[in-house]
Amino acid sequence: MRKSASQDQSAPARPAAAAPSLLAPDSLAYSLLLAARVIAQVHAGQSLTQALTALGGTAAAARAAAQDVAFGSLRWYGCGEFILGRLLSKALPHPDTEGLLLAALYRLQTRPESAHVVVDQAVAAAGELAGGAFKGLVNGVLRNYLRERDVLHIAMAADEVAAQQHPSWWLARLRRAYPERWREIAAIGNVQPPMTLRVNQRRLAVADYLAQLQAAGLSARPLGSAALILDKAVAVDTLPGFADGCVSIQDAGAQRAAELLAPTAGQRVLDACAAPGGKTAHLLETADVELVALDVDALRARRIEDNLRRLGLAATVRVGDCRASEQWWDGNLFDAILADVPCSASGVVRRHPDIKYLRRESDIRQFARLQAEILDQLWSLLKAGGRFLYATCSLFPEENGAQIDAFLCRQPDARRLSEERLLPQDEHDGFFYALLQKAA
């Protein structure tokens, strides 16, 4: 099971496009063009992760630049669309050109000092789309935006969706759940997240790895028992000891899962919905346990194995639906279970901005139904006296506290040991954890 963006709604990824012959690979025009295609695919229903696979054969620098623009444009939800709604008399018939305009508008917003360069490069990129049929339109829209920018931004501030950069239904749910903090929560969802590390304390202490970072010219600060937050994000392969399994990338909020479940040596543990394996690895770094990592997706299950191999850890990785235990369970009960269930992922939207486009309000009820099925099925696999950690990266009560309240009514042998709601902050994403215990 996975819970990231566009779980059920993604279209097949289209093949990577050949590099345009007239654009230099290191040019802004090329980055805008690549970003435009990614944005168009997300608007068509693909997850951002899938859309970015089309950049796989692109040079690293160009790919990074395109990703930066695509992520930023998608985080800027509603803003570019608002501007185009004011500057265009009718919808564009060419999705890639619309994506290009959205990418260029975002770039103009974040790099106003380079406005003329951005317009020039966007027009050059438009020459590679639809035989150049929309070059004049792209030039005109962007120049009109620059002329009318102040008026447009005043109007945007009065439009709730554009001002808060979230869908209206999402904002309504945040208002109901967090009447005093909903604006703050929305604002956090619109910014770039920090790069947070988890030190493999089977290999070295946090303080020792911090010293290695400093020796490499990288600054970081500790948070929690194993986390280090970098002052500035860097390429993974520049991290000391990454290839040797000394450290992993994992949000500080996600690291709470292993800390809360707190398995002890010799226990039999299930990590359900385990891919890509960050929490699996953290559990194994915490204690010598017999761990089964389960995921419904075979490709994602292989990522668990890859991550464990890099870290020098071992688990039994199985592919199967956690609601159908006959597919994978050997009949032996577990001492501890982590159920990191599929959810709206509304707490990690700054890392997955495509969720704003792909998620629908009706999805929340579907997720809640699926979560209840998973809870009931996995509970039957837990030993008497065992501990069960229910986890989501959702902000919506229907998937969190209300889900657990309903479960406790259905299961008289369950009691709630603790409940932890992490609202998104600069230091971590949004998560919900409920630690349960089965009666002995």
In short:
This protein has 440 residues and is of the alpha/beta class.
Structural class: alpha/beta
- Unreliable stretches: 1-21
The general outline is: globular
Count of structural domains: 3
Q: Figure out the total of helices.
A: 17
CATH fold-level name of the largest domain: Rossmann fold
Q: Helices, strands, pairings?
A:
Layout: H1 28-43, H2 48-52, H3 60-75, H4 79-87, H5 95-110, H6 115-126, H7 135-157, H8 160-164, H9 168-177, H10 182-188, E1 196-199, H11 206-215, E2 220-223, E3 227-230, E4 247-249, H12 256-261, E5 268-272, H13 278-286, E6 290-295, H14 298-311, E7 316-319, E8 334-340, H15 355-358, H16 361-379, E9 382-392, H17 401-410, E10 414-422, E11 431-438
Parallel strand pairs: 5-6, 5-8, 6-7, 8-9
Antiparallel strand pairs: 1-3, 1-4, 2-3, 9-11, 10-11
Helix pairs in contact: 1-3, 1-5, 1-6, 3-5, 4-7, 5-6, 5-7, 6-7, 9-10
Note down, in words, how this protein is organized.
The chain is α/β, with parallel strands linked by helices. It folds into three domains: 28-164, N-utilizing Substance Protein B Homolog, Chain A; 194-250, Alpha-Beta Plaits (2-Layer Sandwich), CATH 3.30.70.1170; 257-438, Rossmann fold (3-Layer(aba) Sandwich), CATH 3.40.50. The protein has 17 helices and eleven strands. It has helices at residues 28-43, 48-52, 60-75, 79-87, 95-110, 115-126, 135-157, 160-164, 168-177, 182-188, 206-215, 256-261, 278-286, 298-311, 355-358, 361-379, 401-410, and strands at residues 196-199, 220-223, 227-230, 247-249, 268-272, 290-295, 316-319, 334-340, 382-392, 414-422, 431-438. The strands form two sheets. The chain has a seven-stranded mixed beta sheet with strand order 7-6-5-8-9-11-10, with helices on both faces. Helix 5 packs antiparallel against helix 6 (115-126), helix 5 (95-110) packs across helix 7 and helix 9 packs across helix 10. It starts with 27 loop residues before the first helix and ends with a strand. 46% of the residues are buried.
